Amino acid sequence: MFGLVRYVKHRNREKKEINLRPFIFAFTTYGLCVSTLAVLLLVIFSNASTVAQKNLDYVIVLGTDLVDNKISKSLKRRLDKAIEYARENPNTVFVLSGGRSDYDRSTEATVMYHYMIKAGVPEKNLLLEFYSDSTQEKVGFSLRTIKQDHEQKMLANRVRHNSAIDGRKWPGDDIIIGVERPLSIGIITSEFNLFRAGEIAKRYGFPDACPMATKTDELMLVHLATREAVALFKDRLIGNI
């Protein structure tokens, strides 16, 4: 009889120990996930600067999903910020970045281009990058576009300079001497996306890209910020940043 009682107590003790382990594991895992997410969100929003440097050489405007082949509210905020900057800094060149999704007829860059042209931004101040899909591609391809455009301008300046030395002058041109200096580049995107875009720019050799944030829809902020935190963790894990 006593042996049976001890056996039942022993079995109950084992059950309690076994049953607690999954709860402890789940609670610990949940705590780690929440803590990691909180740290990532803190990093993301602590770097969401809205102060723009004046007279940047280039500004990258990151595209985002279209709605029925038209600009979304989020994309409109980015473009409006670019247009405002263009009016105050007329020599800045804008790189409009974004490819075409499976659901749209046009690329993000093309739709962005027409919006800025309609707002009065000169065509000569607009470059299109319409092959990218992800944030990494948009930043990387845009920086490559900037390098190519800058190299072409520097080459043209050298040709004009040499022609002037030889006594030949291009119609309407004064002597132009290209000066090699670091390019000043800005990135316009939503505040939740800005930190990762800046880190990607560093990865491609542009550590001083000027962050230019736009506001995020408050109703979507939690969802978008959480998704961005996961994307940031993934990019860090696989070496994109």
Concise synopsis of the structure shown:
The chain has 241 residues and is α/β, with parallel strands linked by helices. It has helices spanning 2-46, 73-88, 108-118, 135-165, 191-203, 218-238, and strands at 58-62, 93-97, 126-129, 185-190, 210-214. It has a five-stranded parallel sheet with strand order 3-2-1-4-5, sandwiched between helices.
Key terms:
241 residues, alpha/beta, Rossmann fold, 2 domains, 6 helices, 57% helix
Description:
The chain is of the alpha/beta class and 241 residues long. It folds into two domains: 1-46; 49-218, HUPs (Rossmann fold). Helices cover 57% and strands 10% of the residues. The protein has six helices and five strands, in the order H-E-H-E-H-E-H-E-H-E-H. It has helices spanning 2-46, 73-88, 108-118, 135-165, 191-203, 218-238, and strands at residues 58-62, 93-97, 126-129, 185-190, 210-214. It has a five-stranded parallel sheet, sandwiched between helices. Helix 1 crosses helix 5, helix 1 (2-46) packs across helix 6 and helix 4 (135-165) crosses helix 5.
